[in-house]
Write a sequence for this structure.
């Protein structure tokens, strides 16, 4: 990457640097969430049980993906720092190592997930009306983990060096392809057999394979800022240790988040398939906020990492403050909009079930009041990750989900008798607490003190 490109993120106006990274990342993340939304749209035409089957699988899919997601975050952090330090040799080597580790991890997770699909669905309480569809959907989806992980690490590496537009183009093309393949494999056409719920997973796996192939070709050719090589794909213990020091806390953070979603689903399933469907719709609407919030957090991680690599600590802190303001006020505004259109949004996905529409809309309205704090937490996590302090994000997420949201949901829904509405209220309460704690921790400045001992690897050689 040219010096001018690098200076774009370590010099000049902060708002320009942040938005030039954040907007494409947010757009790409929204496009990726469209996979689930497209699935939900077409499956909703089959009925609430079809939506419930996929909704039941989603937390488990997220759990498996989150185990390897920390490694992709480690790739972003290391590549961003080496890029900021102008060390192209280590950018390429670190990228090769990341692709190698993600590939091996994805194979193991795909095999384990496929054979564990049935027992996992029983554990989280799948009813007899949806267990077959939910199991099949999870089995087919697990076959695509290798492709999905490869594209994830491609995106992470590109974002680390600031090349954020290239993944957007690829995701846009694959989402369009998925929109075409979804009804084809769900309902069938001509010689192509319809697979129902499983057809949505088949369409996703095909598009994921296309995206992964394109990503690998780009990385091996090396014309877009990173060039990986097979000769650099081996077990390098120094790089492996560094990756796990950064990536393991991030994996634990996202895994505990996914486990929290899974345990939440256990509570939700006790109220029947209609509530599961309402929860699934609400969760997908929540993803429309979480996805851009994560995008802003990832952009913050990359920008903080590059400025730390360039030894511009004060500029990194200014990035964090600006991101925090954008997140809090921006997502508060989005929450207000979603509050006002909650019912039409729910009806769009399940048009013929009035009770599901009512329950799903209530869930969305209750959640929407805390979206500003959710965004604040994500950019604070992005700051800590960019500084290499991934343990902070891990602790905050564990606290939010396991000490607040899950216990509160159970107590409100069952002990105090509020039912599903008690589950809905656990979301804004936990978002508020996590956002405040993350911001207070940022203000202590401890994350900056850690940077002195972390700078040494910036000039390390292969």
């Amino acid at each position: 990457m040219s010096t001018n490109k690098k200076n774009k993120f370590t010099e000049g106006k902060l708002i320009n640097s942040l938005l030039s990274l954040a907007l494409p990342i947010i757009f790409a993340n929204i496009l990726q969430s469209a996979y689930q939304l497209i699935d939900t749209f077409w499956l909703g035409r089959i009925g609430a049980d079809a939506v419930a089957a996929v909704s039941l699988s989603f937390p488990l899919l997220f759990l498996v993906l989150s185990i390897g997601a920390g490694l992709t975050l480690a790739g972003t952090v290391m590549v961003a720092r080496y890029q900021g330090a102008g060390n192209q040799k280590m950018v390429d080597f670190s990228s090769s190592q990341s692709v190698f580790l993600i590939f091996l991890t994805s194979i193991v997770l795909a095999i384990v997930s496929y054979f564990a699909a049935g027992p996992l669905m029983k554990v989280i309480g799948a009813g007899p009306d949806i267990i077959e569809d939910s199991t099949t959907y999870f089995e087919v989806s697990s076959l695509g983990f290798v492709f999905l992980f490869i594209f994830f690490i491609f995106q992470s590496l590109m974002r680390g060096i600031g090349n954020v537009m290239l993944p957007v183009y690829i995701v846009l093309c694959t989402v369009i392809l998925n929109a075409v393949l979804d009804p084809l494999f769900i309902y069938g056409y001509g010689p192509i057999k319809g697979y129902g719920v499983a057809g949505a997973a088949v369409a996703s796996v095909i598009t994921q394979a296309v995206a992964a192939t394109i990503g690998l070709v780009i990385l091996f050719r090396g014309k877009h800022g990173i060039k990986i090589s097979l000769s650099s794909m081996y077990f390098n213990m120094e790089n492996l240790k560094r990756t796990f020091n950064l990536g393991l806390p991030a994996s634990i953070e996202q895994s505990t988040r996914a486990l929290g979603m899974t345990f939440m689903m256990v509570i939700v399933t006790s109220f029947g398939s209609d509530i599961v469907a309402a929860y699934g719709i609400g969760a997908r609407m929540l993803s429309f906020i979480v996805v851009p919030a994560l995008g802003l957090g990832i952009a913050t991680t990359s920008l903080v990492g590059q400025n730390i690599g360039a030894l511009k600590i004060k500029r990194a802190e200014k990035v964090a403050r600006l991101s925090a303001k954008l997140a809090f006020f921006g997502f508060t505004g989005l929450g207000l909009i979603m509050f006002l259109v909650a019912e039409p949004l729910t009806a769009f996905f399940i048009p013929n079930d009035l009770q599901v529409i009512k329950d799903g809309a209530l869930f969305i309205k209750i959640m929407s009041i805390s979206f500003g704090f959710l965004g604040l937490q994500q950019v604070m996590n992005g700051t800590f990750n960019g500084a290499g302090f991934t343990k902070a994000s891990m602790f905050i997420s564990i606290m939010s989900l396991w000490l607040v949201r899950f216990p509160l949901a159970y107590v409100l829904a069952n002990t105090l008798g509020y039912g599903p509405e008690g589950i809905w209220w656990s979301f804004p309460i936990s978002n508020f607490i996590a956002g405040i704690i993350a911001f207070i921790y940022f203000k202590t400045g401890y994350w900056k003190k850690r940077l002195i001992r972390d700078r040494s690897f910036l000039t390390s050689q292969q």
The chain has 18 helices and no strands.
